[in-house]
Write a structure and sequence with these properties.
Elements (H helix, E strand, L loop, with lengths): L6 H29 L3 H23 L8 H22 L1
Helix pairs in contact: 1-2, 1-3, 2-3
């Protein structure tokens, strides 16, 4: 029997930190899109964050099953949100 120690908890906390930053980016993107009157961008920003949350939650629920497809999907969403955050900084 192996003892994973605190690694699962540290990993889960890292996922939550990523979700928190993604939430901040989503709120800023939604606010900027709402100021310009573009409801589609508001929906995309908030929908993207929701997708990140769902992937993280599913990954947490199935962490004993191995990485599966959740990790690359989460990485893809995270990179997309990083690009969105960079654009927000450059635009403002």
């Amino acid at each position: 029997m192996t003892d994973p120690g605190l690694a699962p908890e540290r990993t889960w906390l890292a996922w939550w930190r990523t979700l928190l930053v993604a939430a901040a980016v989503a709120v800023l993107a939604a606010r900027m899109a709402a100021e310009h009157g573009d409801p589609l961008l508001v929906a995309l920003a908030l929908g993207g964050w929701t997708a990140l949350f769902v992937v993280a939650y599913r990954r947490h629920r199935s962490r004993r099953a191995g990485p599966g497809r959740a990790l690359p999907l989460f990485a893809l969403f995270t990179v997309g949100y990083a690009a969105l955050g960079t654009l927000l900084v450059l635009i403002r």
